């Protein structure tokens, strides 16, 4: 059995079967009820006896539900659509029972310590911009200008699903109803703070489970509300609300997620934002220093890690990174010494 891909949101092809009504579509916080009409591969779970399922937009952390959530954001009430997408965990000609699918598998044996744990994912999962190909075998589908929706050229022509690869999923469902949520500028300060702290807590839970990409998304949602709160409360402090502290922790957590995915340039950027707010933050110094080590910017790494060690002398992670840095610098010096010796011989 091949290794599972990392769970990521995939582009989808959407065909509108029956148009909905109204001017609005669901947004963050909307409680949506959908009715599943067809699901031949039985990929959807938690359906009730009427084949209905509830999804809260912006509060989904499962790979399949995330794709459906993205589709729901484009739908109007009572709209019926047919959705095609690449299953995040299935390969062509390989069928994995739903109960056996793991959301992700994490390798905890990275040489750079706990901050650099690697996620096991298939090489093909790096291409997140792939789309379901529309070929002559599917003449009823025509790409729209957005390249994410399709419109039927002949509604009476039956859809041919026999030639679909086994990793392409097709479901048909209806958006029965959803709650109308306020725009962010319409929310009260209390509601923004509630949502910000909720998403942060969910992000921490997901991070502890190893679901780093979903944790990253939650921390991003937290920052969205925090930035809006800064406009409402320029001082950054309100009774029971430490807005600046929440923003600082978000930048630190985003940097931690980026470190897990080896996006070292982004780690430097977000750690630097944390240090602008709190120059003596040991976590930010450590993460930026560790990222500099991977980017081979050894002088900057030494400066950050040395300061982090001064702030937290007993921090073993910092000590280990300094040892890694020392080893790499020694090897680099040996290489240059050997090269110069050969040059002058």
TrEMBL record:
Residues 106-164 are annotated as: Disordered. SUPFAM superfamilies: TPR-like (SSF48452). The keyword Nucleotide-binding does not apply. TPR repeats lie at residues 282-315. The keyword Protein biosynthesis does not apply. Residues 117-129 have a biased composition (Basic and acidic residues). InterPro entries: FKBP4/5/8-like, TPR-like_helical_dom_sf, TPR_rpt. Keywords: Isomerase, TPR repeat. One of its GO terms (molecular function) is isomerase activity. Residues 145-159 have a biased composition (Polar residues). PROSITE patterns: TPR (PS50005). PANTHER family: FK506-BINDING PROTEIN-LIKE (PTHR46512:SF10), PEPTIDYLPROLYL ISOMERASE (PTHR46512). This is Peptidyl-prolyl cis-trans isomerase FKBP62. It comes from Araneus ventricosus. The gene is FKBP62.
């Amino acid at each position: 059995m091949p290794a599972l891909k990392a769970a990521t949101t995939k582009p989808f092809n959407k065909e509108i079967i029956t148009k909905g009504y109204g001017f609005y579509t669901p947004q963050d916080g909307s409680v949506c009820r959908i009715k599943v009409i067809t699901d031949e591969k039985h990929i959807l779970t938690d359906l009730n006896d009427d084949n209905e399922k509830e999804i809260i937009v912006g509060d989904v952390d499962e790979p399949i539900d995330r794709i459906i959530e993205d589709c729901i954001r484009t739908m109007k009430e009572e709209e019926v659509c047919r959705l095609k997408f690449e299953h995040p965990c299935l390969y062509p000609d390989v069928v994995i029972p739903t109960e056996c699918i793991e959301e992700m598998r994490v390798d905890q044996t990275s040489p750079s310590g706990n901050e650099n744990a690697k996620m096991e994912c298939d090489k093909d999962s790096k291409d997140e911009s792939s789309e379901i190909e529309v070929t002559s075998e599917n003449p009823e589908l025509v790409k729209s200008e957005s390249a994410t929706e399709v419109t039927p050229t002949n509604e009476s022509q039956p859809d041919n699903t026999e030639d679909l690869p086994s990793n392409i999923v097709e479901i048909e469902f209806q958006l029965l109803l959803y709650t109308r949520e306020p725009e962010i500028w319409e929310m009260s300060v209390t509601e923004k703070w509630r949502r910000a702290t909720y998403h942060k807590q969910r992000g921490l839970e997901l991070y502890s489970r190893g679901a780093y990409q979903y944790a990253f998304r939650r921390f991003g949602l937290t920052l969205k509300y925090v930035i809006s709160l800064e406009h409402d409360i320029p001082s950054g402090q309100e009774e029971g609300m430490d807005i600046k502290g929440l923003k600082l922790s978000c930048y630190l957590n985003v940097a931690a997620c980026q470190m897990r995915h080896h996006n070292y340039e982004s780690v430097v950027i977000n750690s630097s934002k944390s240090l602008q707010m709190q120059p003596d933050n040991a976590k930010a110094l450590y993460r930026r220093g560790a990222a500099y080590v991977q980017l081979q910017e050894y002088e900057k790494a030494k400066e950050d890690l040395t300061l982090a060690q001064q702030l937290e002398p007993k921090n073993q992670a910092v000590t280990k990174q300094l040892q890694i840095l020392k080893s790499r610098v020694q090897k680099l010096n040996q290489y240059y010494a050997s090269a110069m010796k050969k040059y002058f011989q």
